[in-house]
Every structure is written in structure tokens, then in C-alpha cells.
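Ticket opened by: R.M.
Priority: normal
Category: complex prediction / small molecule

The reporter submitted a protein together with iron/sulfur cluster and asked that the result be attached to this ticket for the collaborator who will pick it up next week. Submitted input follows.
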Amino acid sequence: MRHINLPIFIPHLGCPNDCVFCNQRKISGTMCFNKSSVRNEIDSFLKTVDTENTEVQLAFFGGSFTGIDREDMLYLLGIAKEYIDKGLIGSVRLSTRPDYIDGEILDILETHGVKTVELGIQSMSDKVLSACKRGHNADTSRRACRMIKERGFELIGQMMTALPCSTAEDEYNTALELVSLGIDGARIYPTMVFSGTVLEEMYKQGSYLPPDLDALTERTAYVFSVFARMQIPVIRIGLQASDGLGDSDGIVAGCYEAAMGEMVISRYYMNRMLPLLNSMKDEIKGKDLIIHCAKGEISKIIGHKQTNKMKILNEYNVKNIKILEKDDIMLYNMVIDYN
Ligand code: SF4
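Result attached by the on-call engineer:
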């Protein structure tokens, strides 16, 4: 069975918070939301999908779903439940904030076919959460994660890199803690400075300086290494190129790259290979280097615009590089050989 998300964007609805980095309407690419149009959106989407062979998950994204007006939330979940009961969709996933999770909300989600809760955790450092005016602390996130897992929902942890006051170590520790809290998957969002946000003012005043692309890639790859080591699926790295975002519209600073995910994973692979290549430097000179990897990983090892391949060729003076898939190699692992 194929899995597909049917995304319905709920931008900033009911969110009284103003996290410094957030301009939700820009991020979601949807400027307004009309709840009566949801059925049409679902119906049009389903016409394009082979529902017999596809597990469709209705995904309420873009805002803090469990914080919206309770009547609206029940209305939307009620529609979702109708489609689930008719067998047209399999389940619901939604994104929300840790402080909008409690026992009563989880009761409602459980009875309306919600399977997956994506939690916008962003950081597990109280210093960073406070600098971002996030409105809750890390303990709130710990409590929400535990409740979600105890109730048997799938938990996706969303976190950010390069937030104000955040260091690479803060981000690495956030990833470690998310793993220990039992997340089933992660999303990593490098911080962008959007126009109209408090972060834009901070940037203009000089109190926030975004890292350059290389540093941002390195920091995000450091976070990714935690999830890769623990075999936790990372379902997204970087914002999606939605309308009004792909052309950098609305981004004042920060390095938006449509290929951020690929760049980060390639950097992760390069960082894994470096110590090994250094230890073999004399032996591999002038030889053919053979890298065995898991299925589907060749292009990530070669690197975005062949950066990894060129670096190895230039810095290690190998004659040629062959990258081969092998069935028995686990995702993100490699075996390096030469002849
Ligand atoms: S809680 Fe979410 S939607 Fe609300 S301001 Fe913060 S990031 Fe934006």
C-alpha cells in the first residue's frame, strides 16, 4: 500500500502566540482558510488517487490544530471521521503545539481517527524557547510527548536549527531528547527570517545573525546524524517550496534552499566518510574507491551538485569512485573499499 498525505492547511487559526520566527500564513502558502471548502478540497484530491491501493491520511497542517476554536476543530474532525467511516481515507494526522495537548484533547483525537500527532517542539532548551517567545518551556514538551506516546499515537517531533540563542550543541541535545521521548519520525526546519516577523526586527537590529549556508547545512547535518544513528525517519528537512516561497518571496534572511534536505543528508554522509578516508589516505591514492551503500542512497553520497564526489577526487587523489547499492547495508551505513 502506498501512503499519501492529503494536506489541509489551517494557517495560524486560533493561535494567540507570536513565536518570533513565525509568519504562518507565508509558510503554509495559504492566505485564508474557509472551513466550508474542506469537503471540496478532500473530494478533488480523492479523485486523483487510487484509494483501493493507497492509504490516504488527511493531514491538518500549518497551525496549532488542537488550539483552534473547539467548534471548528470538532467540525473538521467530524468531516474527517465521515470519510474514514466510508473507507475513503485511513486516518488523520495533525500538527500542534505541546501546550495544546491534554487528556481531554487526546480523548477527542482518539475518537475521531487521529493516528499521528506532529508536535512543534522546535527546541528542548529553555533558553532558546524563551528567546523565541515560544510561550512554553521544555517540560511542557516532555509532558506532551509522554502523553501522546502513552495513548498509542504516532509522534512526529518537529525541531528547528539556528533559532535565536541556539547553538549546535543545543540542537544536537534536542534531537537526542526527542529520540529518548520515543518519537516515530522527525522534521527538521532550519530557521528562515520572514518579513513581518519579530525575527526580522531582531535581524535588522543586529541581535540575530543567521548562519551562512555552509554553517547551516553543517548544523542541520549534525542534528540529522542523531536521527540517522537511531534509524528514526526524517520525513522533511527544510521548508517546502510552496507558492510564494520557492522564489524566496517573503524571506528576508537565512538560506532558503529547495534542495536543503539533499544537501544536509549529503553533508552527513561526507562527515561519516571523512575519518575513514583520512585513515586510508595513503592506501587509496591512485586507486579506485568503492563505496557500498543502502538502496536509494547513491545520489546523496555523490552529493548535491557532486560536491562529495569532487571533494574526494580532489583531496584524496583517488583514480575513480564507484558507488554501489547493497541489499544488506542498513540505511545511512556504508562500506568503503578500494582496488
Ligand atoms: S505557535 Fe505555531 S502558528 Fe502560533 S505563532 Fe508559534 S509557530 Fe506560529
